[in-house]
Amino acid sequence: MHKKQQDRKKRKASLLRYFRLNEGATDEISIPAFTAAGEIVITCKFMSDPTGGIQPLFYLGRMLCRVQDDNSVRVWGDTAIPGAVFLIPEGVGGRLNEITITQSTANSDVEVIYNGVSLGVKTSSNANPGGSTNYNIGGHFGDKMIGVIADFKLSVDGALIRNYPINDNGSTIRDLVSGQDGTVVNGNADDWGLFKENPTSWEGQNLNVPPWDSVDQELIKA
């Protein structure tokens, strides 16, 4: 009986996690630089403000990815050409979405997979990340995301090189692969909130208001 009780406690504990609200003013997460010379796969979950204009998900040296209020995902390289534009049929707001960006080194093709559905393959010249000095999650210079980013992962040629769950409740954002920890820039303690997983959502547990909308705000799963 005692072992069954322990197992139930473990299952209950595993249903709780922290999410961080990026308030969109000056805050972002800075991560250490890296070198990437193969096929890149970046994946994360996010919920952004659909009326917030430019919403940068990440800027990794030479690759910028952002969502915008015209229901599009845009991926830029480090050249002056326009970014590859991917339209999102159902829009971006109100859900904790999952996005995957794949960059092929053979021909600079970029594919975006959004909530499990491919939005197509387009060209964004020289968009392989790495080789510069700015590596940020949720920010791109003066533009900052309003919303939540979680479970940020980066793989090169099939090998996971960075894994940031963003489940830390503090200024140090742990990398679970090799200890290349990130840092919250201009963050506040109240930006962190504890959430409990339900079948269709994550439910806030006595959140601080503001910055959260309510003490039990829900992050709806896509």
Description:
The protein is mainly beta and 222 residues long. 6% of the residues lie in helices and 47% in strands. It contains one helix and 20 strands. The chain has one helix spanning 2-14; strands at 16-23, 28-30, 40-48, 55-60, 63-68, 72-76, 84-87, 97-103, 109-114, 117-123, 135-137, 139-140, 143-144, 146-156, 159-164, 172-173, 182-185, 192-197, 201-204, 218-220. The protein is globular, with a radius of gyration of 18 Å. The mean pLDDT is 86.
Task: Sum up the structure in keywords.
8-stranded antiparallel beta sheet; 222 residues; 10-stranded antiparallel beta sheet; 1 helix; single chain; globular; 20 strands; mainly beta
Q: Give the amount of beta strand, in percent.
A: over 45%
Biggest β-sheet description: 10 strands, antiparallel
Low-confidence stretches: none
Q: How much helicity do the residues have? A: under 10%
